Amino acid sequence: MNRNISALILVVLAIAIYFTYTQGQIDTNAAISAQNDQYAIAIKNSQTLTGVRDSIQTQYNDISLGERNSLDRMIPSSVDNIHLIVDVSRLANRTGFALRNIKADVVQAPSSVTAPAASASNANPSLLPNVDVLLGSVKLSFEATASYTKFISFMQAFESSLRVMDVTKLNVKANDTGTYDFSVELNAYWVK
After folding, report:
1. Strand partners, 136
2. What pLDDT is attached to residue 44?
C-alpha cells in the first residue's frame, strides 16, 4: 500500500509541478519563440530593403550631374519663389512678352501624390507599397499686355520649359489697339 501511495503522491506532485511551473515556462518559451520569429522577419525585411536601397543608390549614381540638375529644376526640393519668378520672367522676355503684377504665394496645404514604388530585382512587392509623395505648390499670377502671337509664343516656351507648372486660370480681354490684356494664374510644384 505504501508503494501505491508513494506513486500516487509522485503523480500528483508531477501534475502540480506541470501546472504551476512547467506550463508557465512553456508559455514564456512560446512568447519568446514568436518574438524571435518576428525578429527574423524584420531582419529579412531589412536585408531586402538594404538591397533595394543599394539598387536605388546605384541607379541614382548612374544619373549624370546635368540630369540631376534638370530633375531638380523640374520639381525642386524646396520652395524657391524668386527662382520661379525669374524663370517665368526669362521665358516671357525671350518671347517679347512683358509681365507685370507678378505675385507668388505658397499654398499651405500640401497635396499627396501616390507614386509607384521603385522596382528592384530583389524587391518584395509587399514590402514596397506605392509611395505617397507630398507636393507643395506655389500659386503664381501675373498680367501682361501683348499681341496674340506673342502670347502664343510665350505659352509654347512655357510648355517646353523643364519646370512642371499648370495654368489654372486664364483671362483674356481685347483692347482697341489690337493687343490683349492677359491675366494668368498657374501652379508650380515642389517636393516636400
Report:
1. 190
2. 93
**Cα distance between residue 115 and residue 39, in whole Å:** 29
pLDDT of residue 41: 93
Q: Is 10 helix (H, G, I), strand (E, B) or coil?
A: helix
Task: Outline where DSSP puts E strands in the chain.
Answer: 99-115, 131-146, 165-174, 180-191
Q: State pTM to two decimals.
A: 0.55
Fold designation for 76-191: Alpha-Beta Plaits (3.30.70)
pLDDT of residue 40: 93
The structural domains of the chain, with segments of one domain joined by +, span 1-62, 76-191
Confidence at residue 120, expressed as pLDDT on a 0 to 100 scale: 44
Question: Residue with C-alpha cell 518559451?
Answer: 29
Quick one: how far is CA 23 from the chain centroid?
49
Residues lower than pLDDT 50 in the chain: 118-128
In what side-by-side order are the strands of the sheet with 180-191?
99-115, 131-146, 180-191, 165-174
